[in-house]
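Regression test attached.
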Amino acid sequence: MSDDQTRGRMLVPLMQRIISLEQSGLAGWAVLSGTAIVVVLAIMTIFSPLISPHNPIAINVGPILSPPSYQFPLGTNHLGQDMLSRVISGGAIMFQVSVISVIVCLIIGVPIGLFASFAGGYADKLASLVMDSIYAFPGLVLAIAIAAMLGPGVINMAISIAVVYVPSYFRIIRSQVLTIKELPYVEAARMMGANGRTTLFRYVLPNVVPSIVAVATINFADAILTAAGLTFVGLGLPVSTPDWGWDLTYGRRLLTSGTWWVIAFPGLMVVLLALGFTLIGEGLSELYNPRLQR
Amino acid sequence: MSLRSYIIARILLTIPMIMLLLTFVFLIIRVLPGDPASLHFEKNASPATLLAFKRELGLDKPLLIQYFDYLAGLVRGDFGKSMQDFSPVSQQIFSAFPATLELAIASTIIMVVLGILLGATAARSYNTAEDHSIRIFGTVSYAIPVFFLGEVLIMIFGIYLRWLPAGGRMYPGISPAGLLIGGQRYATGLYVLDSLLEGDMYKLYLSIRYLILPSLALGLVLCGIFIRLTRSNMLETLQLDFVTAARARGLKERTVVYGYALRNAFLPILTMMGLQFAALLAGAILTETTFSWPGLGRYLVDRISFRDYTAIQGVVVFFGLLVTAVSFVVDILYAYLDPRIRL
């Protein structure tokens, strides 16, 4: 592998490639548009108290179940709450849960993946067996079991989602480390007297970082969808917090009355947020792994 | 490695995985903060009630004994007793499973057929507007929560157009009787199959009508991965010599793409079907709840609202074992079809 190719795996050149859209093509567009979606939604969520026209949890702000109108552009729900305000501020839970679960995944998955696969032997075999067993499990079912035991709460929800996705980090890091540690430049570093720790952190880890970033962004999307799913099966947060997942869950009971606006807008927001992260993740993995780029 | 020794090696690998899985579920229910029995009563039970309740379910024994009781029970097909009415959970699981299986089969058909057709079309029209829109569809479908799509489908086809039922599996009180053998009816619990076996075309029509929306929702959400897989495989295959040779012989483009190149993409699709089975079951839980489909997922969600932790544990274990079994079968099938795997 030439010097250039090795450097091509580093994060900073990767960013430069994304920004020069002529080189990166469709994948670059995916990353940029995904980032734009996520940033806009994040800003909207952070400043929601300033921009929502009404208090999102105040009831009887308007008539009950009124369709979109000039006064309530996205209608009102069965409690007379303003849907526009709920849509603007309903992302906070999703963002918190997904950020915390990704952080937990990084803290657990990255070190296990790095050390086990770099050490090889029994450590690697044992870690792989445990991770594969969790990976084989239907993710949502496992998250449901953990969330049911831990009880409601943002942190608990994030933990139950994180447990499910740690194996994805482990697997991708393991496959990368196994390849990288055999490359000539790593061997050269070793021959020049670098010890295990230096080799791992200075020569192996930097080349694994881009794939960790790609997995983490996909993980964001999965965490959002899983959080919405947990809320839907009744393991969500208390009613007092505005949440897209909760609106979608409750809206199902109102479907027969034809009040489409109660579910349509929160649902579209979940799709948009998950789509933003998916676009970034897919774009990054394509740029990083050009074999898929076609 | 011969196929037989491959199977043996695969079994040896599966056993520790199953043990880990079972232990993991046990630990989640018993060891995570919060004792399942007191959580069931939302911490409102008197100590005496709680003790009697624990004794009935065997939750008063030492943890290690409980663990072995649990494993021994599973070997006998016993998934424990429900916290609600102390009835065996396995009975409930086995009676709800056919509904889930039927939904899973129908969704798989939709997901694979749609995925392959769209993927092959995208590959054939590589880098055109058609290709791009199919790829965008694949990406967007991944980001849609299946219950949201289900709600939208119910809204459009069930409530506004009234073309299809908005939920349920059949008219209340009706179920297909199944095959008549020696004066007795044997039903599989798969309504479409049972209606056929009974020979009742009206019930067949009904069961298909009820099946369409839920399986469409689940199939659409999961087809994205098959689109991408088929597309990238076909793009590679279409460059191979035998495809060029087929074209040179003057075969129609359609025959070349669907008859020659597509055939080569089947093995990875089979593997992906195995890998997607877990996602399919997870999606089924949400789909069943959306459409009031009386399967395992809906049973699980019901049990969650009753805080019935023994039943939750039973369903989770059942799902885990099912996925392990399917991935085992797919691996063996794959090794049989592609001998290189056994190397």
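Expected vs. actual: identical. The CA atoms of residues 254 and 262 of chain A lie 8 Å apart.
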